[in-house]
Each structure stands twice: as structure tokens, then as C-alpha cells.
């Protein structure tokens, strides 16, 4: 029988052995901001520099060949990870933010015209809002907002009603970083396509927690970051439907993305995905990302989801016992994220004080100010879990939180 042996996998993360503020064992509950990195991924990164550091694609020598093979092998692992049909649909970017900007600047600038409409949900991270506002300003587009209800779920009737003959694109997070809400992206994609619109899904908070299949979801673009997936910073992925990518102009110009360059006759561009990867990429990070994907896949998503849901339920049940506690966002289908405020206490004070117990949580607007304002808040505290967190850590956190709340409310 398969089980998730949390103690064994914790041992793979050197940082989890750290003590902070003197002798406090680190309890890391800021996984929605960034996950920690297992030794296997760190070793893969170092191994690249120690054995075959070289620039890719153009070199004929041994090291360049090895680096190129490893880089392109990672692309195929990513393809398999999200079940894309074709490896040419996988573009490496710096992260989710850059992936979304790529779609806005390439697809958006070339395909959208004045008066076209984009639907964006109220629970988006700023990185799935601001690039569209910038484009809307440049092009004269209209942005319409998919509303969120009190529980933190998208209002699907309102969503259907927002479509007009001018709707061209839907932008939505698979999982909300601020609330944990899992959005019905497959259904949203179906509705978007009925209206001949495209859909871009921000998967930054999804890929480390649930199996993603871009063909089953039937989405047009899907973006995510390596550093929320037990991998390095500085690397992310854009999946794009091949027929769309083939029609998209380059975004950045430079080396790697061309077929031929002539000062007299101009430049002919490479085919996707290379057309969208100008310059020397983050080679080591791409290779380490592959290792991270293999690491998380080896945990088995069914077991991982079951474990994280147990952590979520245990934490939610216990936190509700704290006086003045208000959990923000209680969608029935949630990832392991708990946003909360405590009546009579500032979120920042809570964050600073639980840190003194060694517990890392996040406080602030979580780059989702429109969503915060929907709840009449400027900030919340957020605890977010990953594979290596334990029920004992949850208990320790809730006990610390209880003490902190008693302290600040007195
Ligand atoms: N979208 C969501 C839902 C996120 O949680 C984040 C990271 N907080 C991003 C986008 C941006 O990711 P990155 O900073 O890695 O580009």
C-alpha cells in the first residue's frame, strides 16, 4: 500500500532542520509564497555547474551537447507533467508573471483590437491583472470582472452573463493564492470556448498540489512557477495551444529565437517554442525544475492531496476555537491555504509574534488587493501547507496563535 511518509520526506529538506530565534524549530507555513527545495533538486542544480555548464543549442562540443539534451529533456518532462500534446507547446519563462506578460504582449497585442473585452476574476493575483490593465490602456480594451461571493467562490451565473460578442479572453487562477479556492477552470474553459473566447489559467498555486492536465481542462494557456513546486526561483512555464503559439509574434528579440538574421532582408523567426525564448535561458534552473517535477510526481498526487486536506481540516477546525477568529474564504473546494483575521488584532502583529515562536506565515494583501477590498480588508494572515508539513506543526502553530491572540487582544 502506498503512503506518504512525511518524516522520511522531511529529511530531504535541509532547511526544515533549522532553528530560528534561538532554539525554536522552524515551522514553515508560507508555502504559497515559495516552497522549500529538496536535496535532490539542489544536487541536480550543483551537478550541472560541476559537470556540464555550457551554453545550449549552438555549441558542438561535448558539454554544450549534454546541457542542450538536459534542457530539452526537461521540456519533455514538463510536457508530460501537464499532459500537453506536443513538446513545442512548452515555453520556459522566468515564472508565472513573465508567462502571463508573454501572452499579453504577444497574443494580446497582435490579436486584440479596440473595444474587445477581457474577463478577469476578482480573486486574481496582481500578476494576472496588471499586464491586462497595461494592455487595455494601450489598446482601448474593456476589462470586466467575474465576481466572487462571500465564501470566496466565483459566481458562475454572473460569469456566463458577462460574455458579449466582443469577449476574447478569460483570465483566471486555477487556485487562489489568497484564499485557496479551487476554481472550476474546466467548466470555465468550456463556457469561454462556446463564446469563441480563449482562456488563460494561472496555475501558480495548483501544480504542486493537484494533477494538472491541460487537455482535460481544455485551456488555451496555462502558467506556473518552479519555486512554488519545490524547484528553483527564476524559472517558470507557459503552456500554450500550438495553433495559437504558431500564430503569435515574438515577444523579445535576440539570440536563440531566430532562424536567420540579415541586415538587408530582416529576420526570420524560429518556430515555437524557441521563438519565445530569446537569449540564454536559466539552464541550470530548467534542469533542476525537471528534478523537482519528478520529485513531486513521485509522491503521488492522490496521497499528497489527501495529506494536505488533512492538514487543512485539522488546522481549520482547531483555529475556529480561537476567540475572534474569522477565516476568510470557505469554499467547499479549497487547497491547503487558510487566510484569517482576528477581531481586535492587527494581522501584522500576529505574523510578527508567531514568528517569535518559529512559525513562518504571511501577512498582507497577498498581491490580491481587489479581493481584500471585496472583504473590506487591507490584509489577512495566511498559513499555507505543503507535503512536508505535519499535524504536530499545525498543533504547535494553533497553540502559539492562541497565546498571541490572547496577548494582543488584552
Ligand atoms: N499567481 C499566483 C496565484 C501566485 O500565487 C503567484 C505568486 N505569489 C503568482 C501568480 C506570481 O508568481 P511569480 O512571482 O513566481 O511570477
* Low-pLDDT sequence parts: none
Bound ligands, named by name, code or SMILES: 4'-deoxy-4'-aminopyridoxal-5'-phosphate
Strand percent estimate:
15-25%
Identify the overall geometry: globular
Number of helices: 14
Class derived from helix and strand content = alpha/beta
How far apart are the termini? Answer: 50 Å
Radius of gyration: 22 Å
**Average pLDDT taken over every residue:** 97
Percent helix among the residues?
A: 25-40%
Main sheet: strands, sense, barrel: 7 strands, mixed
Question: Multimeric state of these chains?
Answer: single chain
The total strand number stands at 17
Could you give the order of strands across the largest sheet? 4-10-9-8-7-5-6
Protein name: Cysteine desulfurase
Cofactor: pyridoxal 5'-phosphate
InterPro entries: Aminotrans_V_dom (IPR000192), Aminotrans_V_PyrdxlP_BS (IPR020578), Cys_dSase_SufS (IPR010970), Cysteine_dSase (IPR016454), PyrdxlP-dep_Trfase (IPR015424), PyrdxlP-dep_Trfase_major (IPR015421), PyrdxlP-dep_Trfase_small (IPR015422)
Organism: Kushneria avicenniae
Describe the structure concisely for a colleague.
The termini are far apart. The longest helix has 20 residues, at 62-81. α11 (301-319) packs parallel to α14 (391-409).
